[in-house]
Amino acid sequence: MAAQRRNLMQSHQSWTDDLPLCQMCGVGTAPNCVYGPDGKGTQSHTNEDGHLGFRGEDGCFLYGVFNGYDGSRVSSFASQCLTAELLLGQLNSSHTDNDVRRILTQAFDVVEKSYFETIDDALAEKAHLSNYLLPHNENVSFHHSSQNQKVQERLKELEQEVSGGATAVVALILNNKLYIANVGTNRALLCKSSSDGQNQVLQIGRPHSTDNEDELQRLAALGVDSARVRQAGQIAGQSSTRRLGDYRVKFNYNEIDLLSAAKTKPIIAEPEIHGSQSLDSVTGFLLLMSEGLINALESAHGPEQANQEIVAMVAAELAQQTSLEAAAQSVVDRVKRLHHDVYVSGRQRATYCSRHEDMTLLIRTLNYPLADGALTPTQGGRIYPVSVPYNNSQNTSKTSVTLSLVMPSQSTLTNGTNTASTLEEGTPTPGSQSPTATLQSTNTQTQSSSSSSGDGSLFRQRGSQAAQPDETGRVPPYVDFSQFYRLWGSDHSDGQSTHGGLGPQ
To answer: What is the pTM of this model?
Structure first.
């Protein structure tokens, strides 16, 4: 079996070639980038992220985003093997919540063990050659010196073959109930729209990172100095405390200073499972995001409103795009531009934005309307407020923000079928809606509030003056950025004029 898995990894075949792809999800990606002094970016390594979106039998759907590092082997293997362990007859509608959680946990365990089976020969050869190396000595003959060099070259090849790992966030829908399984530092958000147009967004779970109190307590119970881990911020180059693969922290953790005191394996691949959550009568969307996408947005604008921002971007793109793939890609491209623009601006957060890792976003709609291809955003868009609770790193915090987002107003394409919009008719007038969105944050220590743009005026309906598409389907610029320049100037003014040299003078 191990030989079969090795051969499969080296070929272009997949366990899941015959499974149907889910048409109710879309994925956007962007490769890593390092900016030079001139603002131009270069890719430092191949894209290491992975994703999956399949439709199984018996009303079962499986989605996942995998954040690979030190190569794409683990993320690629996990996306294939995990699908095979879950969608080839293991799940059916008769399973209870406990059954589903057990099967999910077992699937991750199989993925972990199966991956290490594919590299066990390479690991054994690496250990053997490491023992064969002669210590450096000036009196060693040229023959032995040449042998040492060849061994060292082979060891480098083996290290590239066996190194690397991945974090994963996986969503399973069975019997119209949602389960989230998380290993590491990716993120899942569920946006649910209410009948009055309010959208509530929930962050499902917390990242398994070096600032997660529960994870630090778990490590402390194993004998690890959690204070040192928190201060270091990383373990063997990664912030995650749970991950797939990465033989260094699984087999050689006693050689890693931060983990050397551990009584047993401290970095694990066991998923934290949330759910089930019923999706009956739910209208909204599910987002799965790689760590690279989250970090890029938080580096550019800070972590406080990252969830709110990504939800606003997704909702705005769903109101304009006629395919989920285009919507997801547009959001990723937008985050990439924001990150780059902050870097070239030279302002305070530019120091955090000199580079970003691979970015992946998966959108799965839940009876959520897409834009009508015959309408422009100004012709068909209507504005609805969105209330977004934000779950930050503190368990005790509760944050909400009201945003104004555009949603299609007419009969729209939903989950592959034509469905009439159930949203109430009429476009809110400027006087009936607050020009700003108020963020209210409360926790055990502080209370604060701030404002962000949210009146939706960038996409406000313009009636008969709406831009008409030409024969190619394109429309001339129709967005008024005056409010953006005003708010940007007020938020970033540092002794300069409000415009700060931007926008119309």
So the answer is: 0.73
